[in-house]
Design brief:
homodimer; 437 residues; mainly alpha; three-stranded antiparallel sheet; 7% strand; elongated
């Protein structure tokens, strides 16, 4: 099989095998309208369920295990040698469509990069493509989710500022998660994503596995899924249970937090009226005018602080929770893919046992399937540990961030009312009468 | 006129005149079912131009009576509390009574301490009596009979407590009023046993006489006022504005409370969600449980805060909404008294004109038929007119006195009321601010302790886990 794309794994002594490509087929770009469709989840047609795999991963399981000893590499923020930022959203208008692009800036000291700084512009489609490629290449590694195509609730307009900003932050997080991943960050597709000019990227995209070959893989995957797995190792069943529980809990928390925000917004609608009402009243009073204006000022300030607080919750905590809701789905998909690989192996083992003809060919295939399975299992095991660590760190950060925000909010509101009390005491003393009973 | 109730005003040199009573009539007790009916406002006759004749003292001494600005807190010699609500069940009805405790050094009280039990009806009666006796003084409003919105049950704890507080404030406002606090009805309210109070109640002006006064009032209202002094027009304008503003604030604050309650419903789920999640985690369990604890505590504090707003600020705002209505009623009554005076002035002038005309016209025809001399007839007619005019002049004098007195009373009480209003509202704002401060301090502490625990954890675990 000849291939034009090679995925170089950063490990010595591995043989590289090119991805089988069907260059005759035209890639049916199903991702074309991704920005325009309304979906609640990422439904990119990259195969998340398929048992497609990158043949270039056919290295010995032993070296695979070595590759994935990541725990020791995690702590060192000082060995971070690549920095990626996503910013500066801009609208692009063509004859056919309007879409947003984001500036992607890379600063790196890595030798495999031709330069130390890169700046490119990418659209959502491109991110989707990258994610799909990584998933294809590493079916049992956990790829961080992308922000959803569209937010169904509230029918947020695609070009709404808040939506774009929320998306931008999520895309930034996505790329950084990729950059921090020991395997993904050395992906050729990732490198091209970060460095290639727009035209270059387009032609590179076209060289991926053809639609027909992808379809073939999907068919295989469905068949495998139907077969099911016989002897799933306990640890993967444990993972499954954890993923289920995690999915429920985080979804529940995501929903509750969104409801809380909704209620707070309705509360703010009423609170808005408060200050102005006191101000209006102060206009028909004389001696009471001062305290009334004071109260009005306090209510207005508290309103602003609360608005700020709700916005922060919405823009910082909710996206993190929501990302991990999507992560939960990713985990489930990864476990399904692993199962499919095992089912494929088991199927082949069975076939070998029952059929007598073509034993040699089947034996070869079985060996390959066995390798694939062992590689997949090890990859998943290691990545699972890595993912959990990152997840804990992320969520802890989010909680601390929220707590710090809360502290700041309460401090400000406290100050508002303390200043009011101070002013009332001063007033009373100033007037000479202790009027506040 | 014989009367059995005398209102003694605390002022030297004023004559006491008893209230005209119609002791033959049975008082139709319209207030019987007050606790049971669903009304949104107090409907004792506030529009009647009924007045207490015992207030017929010279306007000058009246003015002196009403100089209360100099009154200071240290001369407070009467303390009233309302507490201890209890349910009373009889064959006919169930109602709540409240304990009213009075401590006083005033000489006109037989003792220095009194304890009685009173029901809402009794408070209504007292209010009505004070309004009848002093139509242009401002009586603090009573809590409403029923809260229509939300259909709060009559025997609901919160409702009873809110009502109790309002009744307590009502009595204290009466006790602090220079005129009301010396009212005989007030004294009886504070000291008489239940049976004694019942018989005293029955001795008030009868229903029929009250009806008569209401009819007069309506007639007066229809007539309208010609030359209302500017200050009362200004009061009217102020009252309109005040009424709008405070009603608006009352509504806004109630809506805020309602939204906060809905918010709390959602937040309540948050803590448990974190706690539940912590059960399927290991290393993340501790922070999650921590967050759960913090969210729960903040939820409780917020609940407390909303309750405070509901139980302390809203009742004050609401009382002053009712005050606004009282002010409007008082201004109307004053207008009626003026209208009455103006009408009587006009009637007297007309009568005098009649007399003058009469002296010129001799309707001899009929009178000669009945055999009387024109001179005789003329004499008789003149006598009759003279008598009528004298009566009308007396009436007019009384009406003038009444008007002058009503105006002075209102002017003084207006100043007093404004002062009390400002103090009350200022207190309410300061109180609310203090509660806000306390609330924010507590919530602040909750999240600071969380951050502290996370720092400790991090140091304890030895890994700087946060990216």
């Amino acid at each position: 099989m000849s291939g034009s794309v090679v995925d170089h794994t950063v490990s010595s002594g591995n043989s590289s095998v090119a991805i089988p490509t069907d260059i005759s087929g035209q890639i049916l770009d199903l991702d074309e309208d991704d920005d325009l469709e309304v979906f609640s989840k990422d439904t990119s047609t990259t195969l998340t369920d398929g048992s497609s795999f990158n043949a270039s991963m056919q290295t010995s399981p032993a070296s695979m295990i070595n590759q994935y000893k990541l725990e020791e590499e995690e702590e060192d923020a000082d060995t971070k040698d690549i920095f990626v930022t996503v910013d500066n959203p801009e609208s692009h208008v063509t004859a056919i469509e309007t879409y947003i692009t984001y500036r992607v800036e890379t600063k790196t000291t890595r030798s495999e990069f031709d330069s130390s700084e890169f700046e490119v512009r990418r659209r959502y489609q491109d991110f989707l493509w990258l994610k799909g490629r990584l998933e294809e290449a590493h079916p049992t590694l956990i790829v961080h989710p992308l922000p959803e195509k569209f937010v169904m609730k509230g029918m947020v307009e695609r070009f709404n500022e808040d939506f774009i900003e929320t998306r931008r932050r999520a895309l930034h997080k996505f790329l950084n998660k990729i950059a921090q991943h020991p395997i993904f960050s050395s992906s050729e597709d990732f490198k091209i994503f970060l460095t290639a000019g727009t035209g270059e990227l387009t032609s590179h995209k076209k060289q991926g596995p053809g639609f027909l070959s992808r379809m073939g893989e999907t068919v295989k995957a469905v068949a495998a899924a139907v077969r099911g797995v016989r002897n799933r190792p306990q640890e993967f069943t444990d993972m499954q249970e954890y993923a289920e529980a995690f999915s429920q809990k985080i979804s529940s928390l995501d929903k509750i937090t969104q409801r809380i925000i909704r209620e707070q917004k309705e509360y703010l609608e009423e609170l808005k009226e408060c200050g102005p009402t006191y101000t209006l009243w102060s206009q028909s009073e004389e001696e009471l005018a001062e305290p009334l204006k004071n109260v009005a000022g306090c209510e207005d300030r508290c309103y602003k602080e609360t608005e700020e607080q709700v916005k922060h919750l919405n823009d910082h905590l909710i996206p993190v929770l929501h990302e991990y809701v999507l992560c939960a789905d990713t985990l489930k998909a990864v476990l399904r893919r692993r199962d499919n690989i095992q089912a494929d192996f088991e199927g082949k083992a069975e076939a070998l046992a029952t059929k007598k003809a073509d034993r040699d060919a089947m034996s070869d295939e079985l060996d390959k399937a066995e390798y694939r399975l062992e590689g997949a299992n090890n990859a998943l095991k290691s990545d699972w540990i890595r993912w959990q660590k990152v997840m804990r760190s992320d969520l802890r950060s989010a909680f601390i961030d929220t707590a710090e925000r809360n502290v700041s909010y309460y401090e400000k509101c406290l100050a508002v009312w303390e200043s009011f009390l101070q002013s009332q005491r001063t007033d009373a003393e100033g007037n000479g009468k202790v009027d506040s009973s």
